Amino acid sequence: MTVDVGIRSARKARMLPLRHLPGLVRDPLEAFEEMGREADGEIVRVNLGPFRPHLITHPEHLQYVLRDNVDNYRREGMMWKPLGRLVGDTSDLGASWNIRRRVYQELLSAPSTALMADEMITTIAEAVDDLGEHAAGGRPVDAYEGMTRIVYRTIIRVLLGDRIPLENIDGLGRAMVTATTSSFRARMLMPFVPFAVPLPGDRTFVRSVKAVDDLIFPIVHEARAQEDKGARDVVSMLMRARGEDGGSLDDQAVRDGITGLFVAATDTTVSVLTFLWGALDAYPDVRSRLYEEIDRVVGAGPVAFDHVQKLTYTKMVLQEALRLYSVAWITPRVVRDDDVIDGVRLKAGSTIAVSPFLTHRLPDVWPEPHVFAPERFAADRSRHRFAFMAFGGGPHQCAGRVFFFIEAPLILATLLSKFRPALQTSPSIKPRVDLTLKPRDRVAITLEPVVR
Ligand code: HEM
To answer: Residue 168 sits in which domain range?
Structure first.
């Protein structure tokens, strides 16, 4: 397929049948998947009554929007508007966002992440031991909570310089999850409703943002009062960072930068690691191969940084989990100037629903898309650069990709070198749509110690 941007022959996008918002707000994912099937890679318009975003799923179209013509497609509206109430400016236009982005890129670069690896390994080992204690004697543990504790402790230790005391971690987790659930879905599907008009869940949202503020602002104030010792955690780096005009970030912008990184780094990783237990339960061959690799490379441990590059099948399993459960399920954009993609007219101000979740389910791009098959990511398989969209694409793609592919294999290697997790609830873990995809129901696992 080629992207034809000729303006003369442009036509309107095909409109899909009307979907009623109340039903969609209750359970959007099934309807959304059906829309993806109806679109089949074509640019279509979704009819949500007053809100009619364009759905873009084909890799060629994604490349055009996210990379080749990126300046014309802004991170505004739909998801970004409600997210902005939690993490501040995300519009990629503001000076403060540009400072933030540079800090994220430097902090999460490959050399910087490698320097954090030893601390990551120690923290993960401690957190996995704690989880093992909770699961002692075959007691089932909540997988989402378990993964949250491991990921939060890791992120707080290595990216936040351990500035959040252990006893506040659960409170922060609860506040973050409530903020990105409560009214988030309704606000995303009805971006035309002004914040002044309350929607169900709004009060809970505001309370949870206040709880986040109460935990993050003291960290900012404390760091401000301390002497800058050149530390390489996100708080110190945001404090030191300067814009092109020499300007620095005020307390609110530093708070936003910390919160934004925390949201990006935690929720996504926790969700995909939870979904994974369902896939491993349903695909015993994949599970055996994964165990075999970890036994061969790590054995009884301890896990070391140089194991990560040898865990090639583990990485493929994670990539496939990210394909099938694209936790960052939507990354919408707003059209700046009128444009035409593949003969379809896009008016300035229109919303473009870019959805990795749907792209990963296009049968022409990913044959048998519902099958969990890590071999798709074998080194000798090629694909369109914009076919695997879990981390986005173009200049805005996830700044934490390298970090994720060190952190997540370390977590799996540590856990699986000590335990054999067994799912105690249904293997078909149904996703729930909020800012990210999360399991809809409780996922319980037991951890049987590995006997060597
Ligand atoms: C399951 C793992 C993850 C997924 C699926 C994921 C997905 C994404 C996606 C899709 C975007 C781009 C949004 C857009 O197109 O505008 C993004 C941005 C970002 N992610 Fe991730 N992410 C993951 C893990 C992480 C981790 C572990 C970190 C940090 C340690 C991180 C930090 C960031 C940051 C800072 C951005 C903003 C980049 C920018 O706009 O310049 N992410 N992520």
So the answer is: 14-449
